[in-house]
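Our consortium's second objective concerns turning raw sequence data into structural hypotheses that experimental partners can test. To show how far this objective has progressed, the report includes one record in full. It was chosen at random from the queue rather than selected for favorable results. The single chain below, 215 residues long, was entered without modification.
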Amino acid sequence: MGLDEAGRGSTVGPLVVGAFAIDEGALAELPRLGVRDSKRLSPRRRSEIRAALPALGGCRSLALAPRTIDRYVAHGGLNELELAAFARLIRALNPDLAIVDACDPNADRFGRRLSALAGPGTTILARHRADAEFPVVGAASIVAKVRRDRALASLRARLGDDLGSGYPSDPRTQAFVAAAVRGGDPRPEWLRLSWAPVQRVMRARPAHTLDEFTP
């Protein structure tokens, strides 16, 4: 089984963790299908490959909402959330071997911690850039990214195209988030309030006085 995530650095929308499990004898089918790191594929090609994956193996994903992300960031960190989500997917699919794209700078440590959470029966192999090295992890990255793509498309349909990519490096997203926060909504459900760029905007909001609320 491969494990990967999509949307970790975004200020907007869910963080999605994805898994793909396949019999070892069928692994050669993944490169033939065009599976690779999802970031190297167009959205259309990702969707096409995602639609073909269930014929080869099992696909699972979890979408982790901004409020859940903020709670983990406040009490332990984002790695803890990813570890818990990956462990849940491992227990659901129960593979002999799980290869995971490690988000910890120490990949071996990440693998040991994941193994402890997932329980016995599955060997864990954690690597950096595993989505580029192992096609089964590339398939997991596609599962995660396509669900993340769909979540952002749904948000854009509701909020408008000015939402942008959702990443803090995107000027359109920066402007959209700033307008939403300064508009007075204390908690947009689609926004990760714990992210540093969002915190900076919130600190820059003008203070309200009691006179503003006087009838």
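The partners drew two points from this record. The chain has nine helices and five strands. Confidence is low (pLDDT under 50) at residues 208-215. Both points have been shared with the crystallography group to help prioritize constructs.
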